Amino acid sequence: MIDLRDLRENPDKYRRGTELKGMRVDIDRLLALDSQRRALQSEQENLRARQRTIEKDLGPQIGKLAGAIKKASPDEKAALERELDGLKAKPAALKDQIQAIEPQIAAIEPELNSILLSVPLPPDADVPVGKGSDDNVEIRRWHPPAKAEEGPWGFDTNKSYEANRGFRPKTHLELVRDLGLADFERGVKMAGARSYVLTGDGFLLHNAVLRYAFDFMTLSNGFKAMSVPVLVKEECMVGTGFFPAGREQAYHIEESKRGGGYDQFLTGTGEVGLMGIHQDEILDASQLPIRYTTVSTCFRREAGAAGKDTAGLYRIHQFDKVEQVVICKADEAESRAWHTKMIGYVESLLQGLALPYRLLQCCTGDLGVKNADMIDVESWMPGRGEVSKDGVPSGAFGETHSASRLYDYQCRRLNMRYRAGGGGAGGKGATTFCHSLNNTVAASPRLLIPILEMWQNADGTVTVPPVLRPYMGGKSRIV
RNA sequence: GGUGGGGUGGCAGAGUGGUCGAAUGCGCCGGUCUUGAAAACCGGUAACGGUUUAAUAUCGUUCGGGGGUUCGAAUCCCCCCCCCACCGCCA
Prior knowledge:
This protein has helices spanning 4-9, 11-20, 27-71, 74-118, 161-165, 172-179, 184-191, 201-220, 234-239, 257-260, 270-276, 332-352, 409-414, 448-455, and strands at 137-142, 182-183, 197-198, 224-225, 231-233, 252-253, 264-266, 282-284, 290-299, 318-328, 357-361, 373-381, 396-405, 417-419, 431-433, 435-444, 462-463, 477-478. The protein is an alpha+beta fold and 479 residues long. The strands form five sheets. An eight-stranded mixed beta sheet has the order 1-11-12-13-16-10-9-4. The chain binds one RNA strand of 91 nucleotides through residues 38, 41-42, 44-46, 48-49, 51-52, 54-56, 58-60, 62-63, 84, 87-92, 94-95, 260-262, 282, 284, 419, 421-429, 431.
């Protein structure tokens, strides 16, 4: 959520930001509703203030009169009661006026709030302007250095797979079928389209990747391990910025309504759970930066992606992901430094797996509502891309990670603040909304695609990357 | 699911119709004392929103959430949520 006060003062900043992101939000309508509401509010508050002063004055008198009536003789009673009614008349009239304003405000608020929630965070000035993913800008590419070891060492994405490794590669679909690593037919039988069952070494490899990534973040980089709910309230989805824009992407559990009175939704990323933890809290500045990581199952409806990437492990309804988030002070330089660092973790991780990747600076049109800046990491997937006449895919980069920088957009929605000055949570100092960032660490099975395709051998086997072997009981080859 | 007890400021905890944004204690901030620190003592210490200012001032809202009664609600009534204890059921 953006700061309504800032919008009032700099409406053009938000008009421009919305346009750059290729979104449509009626900023002028929002401004009009806001000024209407404020006018009504002041009117109501002035009346209330008057009512208060009258009450202060009248209260004791009424009390005294009421007491007198109790003790009064029947003859006196009537006169005293008339006097009491007279005293009550004045505040009663004011009360009617105050209450008359109520429905007027109530009529404005739903629309105002819904527009406010849709206003996107303007992209940063250094984000390239563009319409969509085609306008994203490649920042750099990494290729694994040559090594006298089994695997994709020395791989160069500018050359064909065959030129690199001396044999025609199989796609991950073929590998998975031939090595018995996944069963799509039975997955679909049980759960419908885009479903799968990882089998045997397929599931072991999946878990190995997650464990490797999780240990890397917690043991090597000091992130705190957290488990998170994947079934959350709507409030949590709105707070983290996924709703209302992404409502179509989430599975909605209406059954939850029965007991509790609120719906629940399956989360599409562990970010929701991690960011929701400190919702409505005022943190102590000394607690920051908070660095959390989780591994959780992610659910995505993939609405609107019908017919896209229907085969294989690329675009599926359910997967597991290690996610990292950082909650830091409201300081742009610190936010930016964390962004770089969080991307660095992913680079080390992919380098450990010898997977070629590239960094893409997402353009304004490819940013979501909540991002000021986003960098995608794409891993080389030899089985993707255009297929030549003799049936060999060209290979292509496929998105495996996405690193977002959100300023205070998300924390404002979550009402997550910290106390700047003084010590202790009860100490003095102004409260400020935190900044937040998030990035994928590893999403599997999608990451299995480059791993299997890059680490396959001419004989159809797949070498287990050395960093994953400790998580596979020392196994070095899938046959 | 049943019965009973609760939800008040950063925390603990008083408050059952007006003098309550709320006692008291802890914590925190500032000061006195001290070579320095601790202790002691003194003072201060909620969030959010509106109007306004150079700093400021001022008004309003908020005692789990919503609705109601009343001239007036933390306090009374209704609905909901959450927590605790015990019982039942069950991963």
